[in-house]
Design brief:
By secondary structure, this protein is an alpha+beta fold. Helix content is about 20%, strand content about 45%. The chain has one domain (about 1-105). It has helices at about 20-30, 40-50, and strands at about 1-5, 15, 55, 65-70, 75-85, 85-95, 100-105. A seven-stranded mixed beta sheet has the order 1-2-6-5-4-3-7. It is globular, with a radius of gyration of 13 Å.
Length: about 110
């Protein structure tokens, strides 16, 4: 079941399923969203996709994009795979710094 699908700042429709989102929260990065509800975590991810500070293209795989949005002293990073104008979330996590890669979108 699709948890959400939205039009990201990069003009790509990005989606995730409910089961995959729980996998991100419970297995991949439980430390990043501990202490907050799943709904709050989903809202942070949506904000990062729609209103990021910067979007980077990954160095090793140009179809992977990293969306960064600052929130209370750290970044929420959403990693999404883009394929033919559509995309899906690979993971999301909290970090205190941005990674490297080519800037494909940035606030001025």
């Amino acid at each position: 079941m699709i948890l959400f699908e939205l039009h990201a700042i990069t003009c790509v429709r990005i989606r995730t399923t409910t089961s995959y989102w729980h996998y991100v929260l419970e297995v991949k990065h439980p430390e990043s969203f501990s202490g907050m509800s799943s709904e709050t975590a989903v809202n942070l991810v949506k904000e990062a996709l729609c209103e990021p500070e910067v979007v980077l293209r990954a160095k090793l795989d140009p179809s992977v994009h990293l969306y960064y949005r600052r929130f209370h002293g750290y970044f929420t990073c959403v990693v999404a795979k883009h394929l033919n104008g559509e995309g899906y979330i690979l993971t999301a996590y909290r970090t205190d710094h941005r990674g490297g890669g080519e800037v494909v979108w940035g606030r001025r």
